[in-house]
Write a structure and sequence with these properties.
The chain is α+β, with helices and mostly antiparallel strands. 38% of the residues lie in helices and 34% in strands. The protein has a seven-stranded mixed β-sheet with strand order 1-4-5-6-7-2-3, with helices on both faces.
Length: 185
């Protein structure tokens, strides 16, 4: 009996190996698009960088209403969390709330630009990355930020911001607490 089980298992393993190799041999890996096939030089690089830089510097400088003029009427902002999204009005309102409690705001960044040739991200993009800092409740807060803005007809119509929100909150003194245990019935 032991010999039959071993023979059956050996045959099954051999059959599985042959089937797996046959399937693998028939599939081809997807061809990855090359950089120059998807992205090219932004022909309005200087103008787009100036728009995005002015927008960010104006927000950080304390004039959200002026910064709003650099946003398109159909503007949509995303981040830092995947579920976060904003309209121009929400962005202005959020910054105005920050102005009440923050001082010494500063964003040191480098910038780059490119044009995506096709797809959902088609168009001119400006990327800024660096460190944002401010003082709140006597605490100095500094954290890395990556910001990408899509510019169309001289206006920002979409942007994405990435930073570690938890780190900021913890620096300000917030504590992360695990969820309460389920109550036994």
């Amino acid at each position: 009996m032991k010999k039959t089980i071993t023979s059956t298992m050996l045959f099954a393993a051999l059959l599985l190996t042959v089937a797996t190799n046959s399937v693998q041999a028939q599939t081809k890996p997807a061809t990855l698009a090359r950089y120059k096939d998807t992205v090219e030089e932004n022909l309005s690089a200087d103008a787009d960088i100036n728009i995005v830089t002015e927008y960010v510097n104006t927000l950080v400088g304390g004039n959200a209403d002026k910064a709003k003029m650099l946003l398109a009427s159909n503007y949509k902002g995303y981040g830092p969390s995947a579920a976060d999204s904003s309209t121009a009005e929400k962005v202005v309102s959020g910054w105005k709330q920050d102005y009440k409690v923050q001082s010494n705001r500063k964003f040191d960044f480098v910038k780059a630009t490119f044009r995506v040739k096709s797809g959902n991200f088609k168009g001119n993009w400006v990327s800024l990355w660096g460190n944002y800092s401010f003082t709140q409740s006597g605490k100095n807060v500094t954290f890395p930020v990556h910001y990408n803005a899509h510019v169309t007809n001289g206006k920002i119509d979409r942007d994405y911001i990435y930073f570690d929100r938890l780190s900021v909150y913890q620096t300000l003194g917030y504590k992360l607490a695990p969820p309460a245990a389920a109550v036994a019935k």
